[in-house]
Amino acid sequence: ERAPAYDPPPADPLHVGAVRVLEANWTGTSTVPSRGLYPHQWSWDSAFIAIGLRHLSPLRAQTELETLLTAQWADGRIPHIVFNPSVPLDAYFPSPDFWRSSTAGRAAGAPRTLQTSGIVQPPVHALAAWLVHRADPGLSRARGFLARVYPRLAAWHRYLLHRRDLGGGGLASVVHPWEQGMDNSPCWDAPLARVAPAPARSFRRADLDHGAAEDRPTDLDYGRYVRLAADYRDGAYRDGGGEFAVEDPAFNALLISSEHALARIARELGATGTARHARAERLTRVLSDRLWDPAAGLFSCRDVRGGGLIPERGVSGLVPLLLPGLPRETAAALVATACGPHFGLGGETRLPPSYDLLGEAFDPHRYWRGPAWFNTAWLLERGLRTQGETARADALRTAFLQVAGASGYAEYVDPFTGEACGATGFGWTAALTLDLLH
Ligand code: 9WN
């Protein structure tokens, strides 16, 4: 007797390709953003990656976050890089011998045996932990996943809301452009201009071994990044004294969104979560009071050292769309700005650019000075949905999936053409593709 005819379901090449990237970038305990350019574990990358991995393997998604959290410092900070000791020192700059976390970070409670950086990245982690839990609550409960991560996430938020309230108004400040994650955004040009760059000959850029120089930050930018990081290290990573301090809308909106997620986690663990939701709502009002720029129709960065809002439109200013408690008229103004001439969503651009299309510094290929990035596109997609803008969210989702696949899961793309820039096979691009496919 012949076996019945059987056609396996056609495999979606977009799904298969994304899975392949995540397999290739998985090290056994976490996922690298890119094998060549970024061969260690990055903090906000891992949060976005876990959000996608949960559809593939909830266990691996939990592990991704738990691995990162084992590198948390005693003061609550989650370092922006956890170094893989088996990767050669010269594969990435700045390397562990620059940060010297286990010695210079001792007073701040850096781990003794792991090597990490000493700065942080945006707090996407509690949001990621909640979404990972929801993918398989049974497994999560059986492993005690939330019970183990909750105290660490709570300490992380405490660090940001207390030690990092450098402006004194209730929001967290970043003390280095790498902390906000959009490294060379024109929003940093004015506050960075005050920083004396470290001499170019005092360091060697490993990024240029992998990326085209015209797609990367400049040597002058790097000189300033190195100076700020070295000063922070030389001050034993104590908070408060640095030359650079900025309140950023995306960083704070992610903190607020994660605070809502932490409230849900607390509830799942048997508490009420009410105080955390209330704090998130209060922080949403503080964000509006301190960073809303009514004339520009978006949120701006506040230069805490220079005093005042920075008059540049970055995609970061649209990310507060994520917040359910945003006043109606603010949300409407943000949608209008996203879809207007500065960002061209649903019109001129395929995906939202990282910076104002009409801004003087706009450059469609240079890193965070214009190209579109998939993590911010994912955040805006979620934000539009939160605000009830379903048709716009659907259109952005479709564009995301098309451009991600066609670009080989690129790190970032030309916002008009979708042409790939930077690395391909990039972790969060693949992971967030999986998330939007589900
Ligand atoms: C510095 C890893 C990281 C991302 C950042 C992105 C880039 C590092 C670099 O790569 O920054 O942290 O060397 O340029 O700007 O958002 O987390 O993917």
Structure in a nutshell:
With 438 residues, this protein is mostly helical. It contains 17 helices and 10 strands.
Write the layout of secondary structure elements.
Layout: H1 13-25, E1 41-42, H2 43-53, H3 58-69, E2 81-82, H4 96-99, H5 101-104, H6 125-135, H7 137-143, H8 145-162, E3 173-174, H9 177-180, H10 189-193, H11 219-234, E4 246-247, H12 249-268, H13 274-291, E5 292-293, E6 298-299, E7 302-303, H14 328-339, E8 372-373, H15 374-386, H16 390-406, E9 412-413, E10 420-421, H17 427-437
Antiparallel strand pairs: 1-2, 3-4, 4-7, 5-6, 8-9, 9-10
The structure holds (2R)-2-(alpha-D-glucopyranosyloxy)-3-hydroxypropanoic acid.
Hetero groups in this structure are: (2R)-2-(alpha-D-glucopyranosyloxy)-3-hydroxypropanoic acid
Mean pLDDT: 96
Rounded radius of gyration (Å) = 21 Å
**Whole-Å distance between the termini?**
39 Å
* Helicity range: 40-55%
Shape designation: globular
Count of helical regions: 17
Uncertain regions: pLDDT < 50 for 5+ in a row? none
Oligomer: single chain
State which percent range the strand residues make up: under 5%
Strand and helix order: HEHHEHHHHHEHHHEHHEEEHEHHEEH
Order the strands across the largest sheet as they lie in space.
Answer: 3-4-7
What does this structure look like?
The protein is mainly alpha-helical. It contains 17 helices and ten strands. It has helices at residues 13-25, 43-53, 58-69, 96-99, 101-104, 125-135, 137-143, 145-162, 177-180, 189-193, 219-234, 249-268, 274-291, 328-339, 374-386, 390-406, 427-437; strands spanning 41-42, 81-82, 173-174, 246-247, 292-293, 298-299, 302-303, 372-373, 412-413, 420-421. Strands 3-4-7 form a three-stranded antiparallel β-sheet. A three-stranded antiparallel β-sheet has the order 8-9-10. Strands 1-2 form a two-stranded antiparallel sheet. Helix 2 runs antiparallel to helix 3, helix 8 runs antiparallel to helix 12 and helix 12 (249-268) packs antiparallel against helix 13. The two termini are 39 Å apart. The structure holds (2R)-2-(alpha-D-glucopyranosyloxy)-3-hydroxypropanoic acid. Residues 33, 38, 42, 44-45, 80, 178, 181, 183, 207 line the site of (2R)-2-(alpha-D-glucopyranosyloxy)-3-hydroxypropanoic acid (9WN). The site of (2R)-2-(alpha-D-glucopyranosyloxy)-3-hydroxypropanoic acid has 10 residues, from helix 2. GO terms for molecular function: hydrolase activity, acting on glycosyl bonds. Residues 38-429 form the Mannosylglycerate hydrolase MGH1-like glycoside hydrolase domain. Keywords: Glycosidase, Hydrolase. InterPro entries: 6-hairpin_glycosidase_sf, 6hp_glycosidase-like_sf, Glycoside_hydrolase_63, MGH1-like_GH. Pfam families: MGH1-like_GH.
